[in-house]
Design a protein that fits this description.
This protein has about 100 residues and is mainly β. The chain has a single domain, classed as Sandwich (Immunoglobulin-like). The protein is built from no helices and seven strands. The strands form two sheets. Strands 1-7-6-3 form a four-stranded mixed sheet, with no helix packed on it. It is globular and about 40 Å long. The termini are close together.
Length: about 100
């Protein structure tokens, strides 16, 4: 992922919040990018699948030039040390 300094890119991750799973994130170097959870988006019409939750929306802002990684993990937050069921890693270059 490439982001211009002072620009923002949106990441949408499939949600399972109706099952208690949410996405959390960690940033390798937070001086390069800022990540902020914006919202959950839900389908505007009736879901085709029971329990569909839509997506979780994250905004990634480029703060200064450099490279870093953002790691997202989907897990139930009340289960300390519980295994994540899904991981997404983004390599980010800010220019």
């Amino acid at each position: 992922m490439r982001i211009k300094k002072d620009s923002t890119v949106v990441i949408n991750l499939k949600s399972l919040s109706t099952s208690g799973y949410t996405w959390s994130y960690s940033v390798e170097d937070s001086s390069i990018v800022q990540v902020e959870k914006k919202d959950n988006e839900f389908p505007s019409s009736r879901s085709k699948h029971v329990g569909d939750s839509g997506v979780e929306v994250f905004a990634v802002k480029g703060l200064r030039s450099g490279e870093t990684k953002i790691r997202f993990e989907q897990r139930r937050p009340w289960k300390n040390g519980g295994k994540s069921i899904k991981n997404e890693t983004y390599n980010v270059i800010v220019y």
